[in-house]
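Justification of computing resources. Each target in the renewal requires a structure prediction run like the one illustrated here; the chain below, 226 residues long, is used simply to show the kind of job we budget for.
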Amino acid sequence: MRIAALIGAVLLIIVATFQGDDSPDTWFAIQKIEIKGQLKYATEEELQSDYSSLLGQSLLSVSLSHVMDVVLSSEWVANAEIRKVWPNTLQVLVHEHTPLAYWGDGQLISTSAVVIAPRKVPELPLTRFYGPEDSSGVVLEQFGLISQVLASTSLRVATLTLEPRGAWNVIFTNGVEVKLGREDILERLQRFIAVYKSDLSGRIDQITSVDARYPHGIAVGWKQNK
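Resulting structure tokens:
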């Protein structure tokens, strides 16, 4: 197939040579970009706009690495497969990022740990991560460890925050907020889970917060009875 395509390209160059004064680069100028793939977050219109700088460039001389750089500059595109279709078309098979969690306000973290900042942030049922700049990898790793500890429970993380001084706070989907501090995070979390299962699970609506930073127990903040 590659040999046939090469032969076809050579023949097209020969034909172009006899078409007049136009150079082969002009004859093979990119006129169309075909976008393929299952698009869930980006739209074809947005991608066409992002890739418009490729139009008019020569299919003969443009490098695939340059095309790939342009293709990957679109925030939702994780990877792509590119094909030159002679004489004037580029085919781009797009693979999108899969969002795993929100990162701060206006960004997301993908399942491949890439932080993306889309022009329009979708509303998705995802965990929210907060932390200092450049700490997304640390927060994602801690989230994975916490999720493993929670796997045998009904608790799920709604918000995970790493404070500037290194302390961790968790808000669960049932609304309970737990302060875990800076050390022995998983041990403290397991201690909270034990108390939660035995004493707290039936009284969630009465709890304001939980402080698990104590060495041998936890402190529970209770709502005031009116």
